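Can't paste images in this forum, so I'm doing it all in text. The chain is below; anyone willing to post the predicted structure tokens underneath?
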Amino acid sequence: EQLVESGGGLVQPGGSLRLSCVASGLPFSDLYMKWVRQPPGKGLEWVSGISADGGTTTYRNSVKGRFTISRDNAKNTLYLQMNSLQTEDTGVYYCAKASGARGQGTQVTVSS
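Text version of the structure:
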């Protein structure tokens, strides 16, 4: 099983990024998936989740209205569109299974 994130980078406050996560070796289309992040010096925090068919999405309050989670089961790919980024969004972002197994992460830095 492998999850590989990409799309992170350095962006100014108010900017946007789109994260991707390609899954292999697991029944992606049958799985609830989520994005979690680890801010500098802090623990992991849940950001957003999506049901197996993409019909149900959930978000932590601080990202509601700014982030959009989606998936393409034909491509075994999970996405996180992040708009209106704030400095507090800085951290390493991971895609993860419900069990918590996650990829290597991608760094997102929001700074002027």
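The chain has a mean pLDDT of 97. The chain is about 0% helix and 50% strand.
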